Every structure is written in C-alpha cells, then in structure tokens.
Amino acid sequence: MEIKHDHHAHSGNYSPGGNSCQYIVVHNTGGPSGAYNEAEYAQNNQHPNSYHYVLDGTDCYQILDDTDTAWAVGAWAGARQLIRNNQSISIEVCSDGTEFTGAEKEQLRELVGILMERHGIDADHVVRHYDCHTGHKLCPQYYSLNPDAWEELKAYITTEGEEVSPEEITAAVAAGINMQEYVQRCGSSAPIAQVRNDGGEVYRLYNEGSGDHIFTTKDEADALAKSGWEMEGIAWTAPAGGTKPVYRLYNAGSGDHMLTANYAEANELYKAGWSYEGVPFFASGEGQAVHRLYNPNGGDHMLTASEAERDSLEAAGWTYEGVAFNA
Ligand SMILES: [Zn+2]
C-alpha cells in the first residue's frame, strides 16, 4: 500500500509532537468525500480537529507525523477522558457511518498492521473513537452501534496471519509445520491440524444421518466414504501452491461442517464453540468462485462452484451467503 505524503494538516489544527503513540483510534468521516478531498480540506481549512491518516479503500494519505498530537478524541464537557489525543494515532475511514467496504477493511488492516509493528502497539490498544471518553461519540457509527461487528473488524484488522506467502507455505509444508503456528500468530489457540497446499481435487460427500455436506481432499474423502458417507463427486480443484488457508469448523450440536477463508470468521466460530478442524486445502484467491449457501431448515452449509446449482438451491429456499473464496 502506498501512503501518500503530499498533503499536511493546517498548522492551526493540531499540536506538533508530544504523542506517545500508545493507541490506534479508528474513526469514520461520516460523509461521502474520498481521501483526497478530505486531505485537501484538512490542509486548506482551519478548524479544531485533525487526524493522522485518512483512507477510502483506494488512497491513503498521512497528513501528520505519528508523533504529532492530532485533535481527534477530546471529551466534551461532562465526559471523562479515557484515551487522550497525546496517546493516540487517529485513522479516518471515508465512510458515511455504515459498515466499511471490503476494500476499506483491507486497507485499514494494512495500515493498522504497519502502525502496530512500528510502535509496538498490541491489539488491545486498537480502539474506536467511541472508546476514548465516557461521552461515547458514535464514531465510527456502525461499529459503535454494533459491538459484535467491531469485535469482528478488530480481529480482522489486528490479525497478521490470514495471507500466508508462498515462501512460508513451501517452508511450512517441507517442515511438516501444522496450523498451530498460524493460529498462535493470530493470538488464539486451537487444536493442531496439518497444513497442506499441494492442491488437487476437492470431493463432496453427504451424510444422510446429519444432513451435512463435507468438502475434503482425496485421503479423507476415501476414509469417509468407507465409513458411510455418500460420495457426491468432485466439487472443484484446489490449486497447488495456494496461499489462502481455508479453515474448517464443526458444530457438534447441529452436525454441520463449515468452511471459510476468512480468519476472523473462523475465529469467531471457534470462540462460539465450534471445533476447529484445521485447513483441509488452500485457495488461490484468484481462481474459480466457490459460493456458500446455508439451509435454514437443516442447518447445513453447502459450497458449490456451479452457478446453476447455486441458483437452484437458492430457489429451493437456501440462503445465499456469497463467495466463500476463489479456488
Ligand atoms: Zn471520530
């Protein structure tokens, strides 16, 4: 990500220096302008607030040094200050107060990762403007009104391990390293399962007893077929050398297996009591779209690379949950 430095906050809008950089504070601008226009405005107008970074999913501008003190989180009269301007780096996301877009989340995650590493800030010190004083400003609005969504976003933007480089994968597979390493890096704990990214056909099997579909590579598919699962055929082909781990989780209550390439989602499910079964295969992030559907009657999650099947399941009452990953 390129961080642009061709704009600077108006000299009347902040205090130079003095910031101990202990916290990262996430805001939304609350309006429709993009990062360029926001940076222009902050440079050309004197008004009593400021920030360090502004991003819109495409561009990111830094308009103050991290160690400058922005006027961003001050409490209003009657509210008690919990996190001060001179302790925090403020990031504005150009958003009208609704959920951040995928591109904004990704860019925010990259910037937060850079700042956490640069200043030795841990995930507990990544906060909303909402958290900075007892007046609880509704900023960023969507994530102030939806604490669960904030927890999910925070897990995502403070996690470094979702994208694993091809070199790391090659080394991990050669060394027989298991998923535990990746999970530990993400600050959680989960049972050990093997990582493999040698690709190959992914098989779909069905368990008539539980009404569950499972997707797995050849070895496990063969074993499941012997133990009574019905082989339904090849669902898609996983790429050799894929870099996006696909996590599998299991709900012992409903008997449902679920796959996701979204680490934050996997971690949320794990925390909600699903068992973590590891990474049966990897996705490339660029291949064929694999769609996820949910059956509100049986509680089963289903994946299909066929748009026709997706459409017919949706017509039959399944809920379409979007593209789970690109094989
Ligand atoms: Zn704010």
UniProtKB/TrEMBL annotation:
It catalyses: Hydrolyzes the link between N-acetylmuramoyl residues and L-amino acid residues in certain cell-wall glycopeptides. It comes from the Bacteria. GO terms for molecular function: N-acetylmuramoyl-L-alanine amidase activity. Residues 11-141 form the N-acetylmuramoyl-L-alanine amidase domain. Its EC number is 3.5.1.28. Signal peptide: none annotated. It holds the Pfam family Amidase_2. This is N-acetylmuramoyl-L-alanine amidase. It comes from Denitrobacterium detoxificans.
